[in-house]
Amino acid sequence: MEQTVHSIEATVAICTYNGRARIGEVIRALAVQSQPKEDWELVVVDNASKDDTHEVVRGLLGELLPGNGRVVLERKAGLSFARARAAEEARGPVLLFLDDDTVPAADWVECGIRAFGERPGAGVIGGKVRPRWEERPTALAEAVAPFALAICDLGDEPLKVAAAGGGIVGAGMCVRTGLLREIYGDPGAPAQVTGRTGSNLMSGEDLAISAVAREKGWECWYEPGMVIEHMLPASRMEKGYLLRLYEGIGRGQAATRRVYDWKARTVLSWGIGLKDLVRWVAGRLRGGVGGGLEGDLHELRQRQVLGRGLQAMRWPRV
Fold first, then answer.
1. Which CATH number does 10-240 carry?
2. What is the model's pTM?
3. Domain ranges of the chain
4. 298: buried, middle or exposed (CB in 10 Å: 19+, 13-18, 0-12)?
């Protein structure tokens, strides 16, 4: 277990790419947290944005959190690189992550600090993620939200998440700082699962963190008192976006499997990938299951299987 000499209790980290239009609401919500500001800091990691996000964030921090926040630039594109940079920068013993489109409740920081204090064996903690739809959601968007759009509600009681290959959802994921530094210091772990890179929707770095944390003897917990809202614009409901997203999820599943399954780190990965590609071909030959919602869901699942198979067929890295 780690020891710390930090005088603050937590570091809140926002990883952002081209987030100038979204991140203001997140920072404003942090500015009115119930936890005293002297107990925590904010680090915003600009993950190689191509717009003026860096300058916008600097202005917001100066206005809303003077002396309590800073923005740093991570030139390596990929969410895992941004998370690793946050771990390097953090002065707090725990890292409370937010995306640039997730708005925390007023007691989110307070609940996060308390959750780690009450559970000394917990290495990774996540909470409840509610949707904030920009427009009335389509039936397809509502159907896939818990799986694909980072919406999470596992009930109103704390829950230990122990399933192999499962973990804490990335939106609002919180990790002990020393643990995350240790994880990213191992070249065989989630540093290989880069996560989303710009418009590339490959995911899975959050599940990789949970998997390695469990391997190292830490627990993963769901804490329902930690509530955030995920802003979901109309573009996230479009079928074209969801198809790309499901392929990215499939690729992320294959990449993450290499973290917790030794077979996926050898040439046996080709057999795993081939099995998924056969499933994809079989699904194509069977055709759809009719129109409407069921037909759309079938297409999404097919794209996920295709992405998983293609990623698994790549030469496995040890």
1. 3.90.550.10
2. 0.87
3. 10-240, 241-312
4. middle
